[in-house]
Write a structure and sequence with these properties.
Number of helices: 11
Helix content: 25-40%
Low-confidence stretches: none
CATH superfamily of the largest domain: Vaccinia Virus protein VP39
CATH topology of the largest domain: Rossmann fold
Order of helices and strands: EHEEHEHHEHEEHEHHEHEEHEHEE
Number of domains: 2
CATH class of the largest domain: Alpha Beta
CATH architecture of the largest domain: 3-Layer(aba) Sandwich
Mean pLDDT: 94
Oligomer: single chain
Structural class: alpha/beta
Number of strands: 14
Length: about 375
């Protein structure tokens, strides 16, 4: 039913290459990375697999059409030419949302109205009806217009893929699960690793590191919007979930240690780790960063310290960077991966990073500072 349609994985700016590599390892074909998304061939198996297994992507969508439109008539005709009857069917519901940037058709509400009208017009003609009942499964249409170029998509995920299901509650300004997973990827976390987060908050960085180390698919404990679509046989979901479960590493040697000055954070981190199914390999303890030390021969430290635009003023945040620089000893077997939006981070930390990676934490431009040379 979706023959000829492409899939697209929407991702955090700066992570497209990482997401593309993950999809190729899953078996995706004709993978190409663009700004903010990765495009690959459609199959029912890949649609389901990407939703269940993607660690770094925010959402999986059907990519229906790309075109240029300078008038509402052009927009209407382009939308009307899409075979919506094969996608939505006779009774599917199809809300429309989107965004416009630097386009002649700059009104989002007006574009929504035209797209909705064009889809309804096509469906009513094809099914010979006077109205669209929209009583069935949900097909969320999303459009993006940039410099008069429109992309038309249909969401398959529902809630964003960062919603793993283990973090119903969190502290102020938590790091997104997908970004935490990216940091674990850059740190090359493996099943034999010892990982420490000395400012762990609600535990997201360590939980994502443990999920990666144990090869636990992040979407195993949640549902997806397209599970209700008649075009995808339930047996595909059953098969892909079974394969994901069978791929879990049960004899994993990974161990993680999380510290935080806030006792409530430690309590929440333990609860989240339990929900994620990784509590047996994670240990949490109340401890101040000023007292940080470790006696591991080899370990990787990953952390998301509080910073000026998040929780603290810049002066206090930079005091913490200085303490980290004093406490994070550079020696063989130790590596450090720290995310911060402060361009002066290295100055206050006291050491230039061996490598840096630009990335976005929400709308905030950050860098991941990597230290791995003794």
């Amino acid at each position: 039913m979706f023959d000829g349609i492409k899939l697209a994985a929407l991702c955090i700016f700066g992570t497209e290459g990482i997401a593309a590599g993950e999809l190729r390892r899953m078996g995706a074909e004709n993978v190409s990375a663009e700004n903010g998304r990765v495009i690959f061939d459609y199959s029912p198996q890949m649609l389901v697999r990407a939703n269940i297994r993607c660690r770094y992507c925010e959402r999986i969508v059907l990519l229906l059409k790309n075109f240029k439109a300078l008038s509402f008539e052009e927009l209407f005709q382009n939308i009307n030419n899409i075979p919506w009857e094969n996608i939505i069917g006779k009774s599917g519901a199809f809300p429309v949302n989107g965004s416009c940037l630097s386009s002649r058709l700059s009104s989002v509400p007006a574009c929504q109205k035209i797209i909705k009208k064009a889809v309804a017009n096509r469906l009513m003609k094809k099914f010979n009806t006077q109205f669209c009942e929209e009583s069935g499964a949900l097909y969320k249409i999303h459009f993006v217009a940039i410099k008069d170029n429109f992309s038309i998509m249909v969401d398959t995920s529902g809630q964003g893929l960062h919603k793993r299901g283990y973090r119903e509650q969190s502290l102020d300004a938590p790091i997104k699960e997908t970004l935490a997973a990216v940091i674990s990827d850059l740190a090359v976390i493996k099943s034999s690793h010892t990982v420490v987060d000395p400012m762990c908050g609600s535990g997201t960085l360590l939980i994502e590191a443990a999920l990666k180390a144990k090869n636990i698919a992040p979407g195993l404990k949640r549902t997806f919007l397209c599970e209700k679509w008649e075009q995808i046989d339930p047996s595909v979901w059953q098969s892909e979930r079974k394969d994901a479960v069978d791929s879990i590493i049960t004899d994993c040697g990974f161990t993680g240690y999380g510290y935080d000055i806030d006792e409530n954070a430690i309590k929440l981190a333990r609860e989240n780790a339990e929900k994620a199914g990784v509590s047996s390999c994670l240990h949490f303890e109340r401890r101040d960063i000023r007292d940080y030390t470790d006696d591991f021969q080899r370990c990787t430290v990953i952390c998301n310290p509080p910073y000026g635009e998040r929780l603290l003023d810049y002066e206090k945040a930079r005091e913490i960077y200085k303490i980290m620089g004093e406490r994070f000893i550079r020696e063989k077997g130790k590596s450090y991966y720290i995310i911060s939006p402060d361009d002066e981070f290295e100055r206050y930390f006291g050491v230039r990073a061996d490598k840096r990676r630009k990335i976005y934490n929400g709308k905030l431009k950050c860098q991941i500072y990597m230290y791995f040379k003794a």
